[in-house]
Specification:
Layout (H helix, E strand, L loop, with lengths): L14 E2 L1 H16 L7 H21 L3 E2 L4 H31 L6 H26 L4 H5 L8 E2 L1 H4 L12 H14 L6 E2 L2 H28 L1
Antiparallel strand pairs: 1-2, 3-4
Helix pairs in contact: 1-2, 1-3, 1-4, 2-3, 3-4, 4-7, 4-8, 7-8
């Protein structure tokens, strides 16, 4: 029966943990770099500590292939994403307040660097959200728990476009997040479910507001 299904609906050993873990570590390092300019000191230690501890726990439970369907592990993964999102939204909010009401002596170059860093973090975080929620997450996809995708990749419509055994992995969601955060709209991959559309709209709104305000302020400073 399974052989008649498209390859992305087959059960598989599970994705490697390291691409998503590398994205999380990158978010942590970039948020640390923002601590001096846009991250309130009172929140910095708390949020970063929570993010780091959640990542360690996830790696301990599922260090290599993500194929264990567990509510506890899933809640941990979602909690990590919530913490990362709160951290980045805090950076966005504080930096925008500083730009609107107090330039804090920032030069045009420093403004562009801070804004660009926040934008990159935003891309990584939403890639993780897309990856974690599509068809119930990576573990559920590995066990073929849900046949209804939340994102329609081109290879799903035409299997001739992909190699045998193709299935979406983290890099596909990262590209989706990058194009959505750059073009502010879907490109080659369409959102199907309501939550997917809401997340893509939210990412576009954050990216657009961050880039527009940062660039406009940088031009004025210059």
């Amino acid at each position: 029966m399974e052989k008649h299904l498209p390859s992305w609906l087959h059960k598989h050993p599970g994705e490697h943990r390291w691409p998503a873990a590398l994205a999380v570590v990158s978010c942590l390092l970039l948020q640390i770099s923002q601590a001096g300019a846009a991250f309130p000191n009172a929140l910095k230690g708390i949020i970063l500590s929570i993010e780091f501890l959640l990542l360690i726990v996830l790696l301990a439970f599922n260090p290599k292939h993500i194929n264990k369907v567990s509510k506890e592990i899933r809640y941990l993964g979602l909690s990590l994403l919530v913490a990362l999102t709160i951290g980045n939204l805090t950076c966005v909010w504080v930096l925008i307040q500083g730009l609107l009401f107090n330039d804090q002596g920032m030069t045009a170059v420093s403004l562009l660097l801070h804004g660009g860093t926040i934008w990159i973090i935003n891309i990584l975080i939403f890639a993780l959200w897309f990856w974690e929620l599509d068809r119930g997450g990576p573990a559920a996809r590995a066990n073929a728990k849900d046949a209804y995708p939340d994102f329609l990749f081109p290879q799903m419509e035409n299997e001739n476009l992909a190699q045998p055994g193709w299935r979406p992995v983290f890099v596909d969601y990262l590209y989706l997040s990058f194009t959505n955060g750059t073009a502010f709209s879907p490109t080659d991959t369409d959102p199907l479910s309501a939550w997917a559309k809401i997340l893509m709209a939210l990412e576009s709104a954050i990216s657009l507001s961050t880039l527009a305000i940062i660039i406009a302020r940088a031009v004025n400073v210059a």
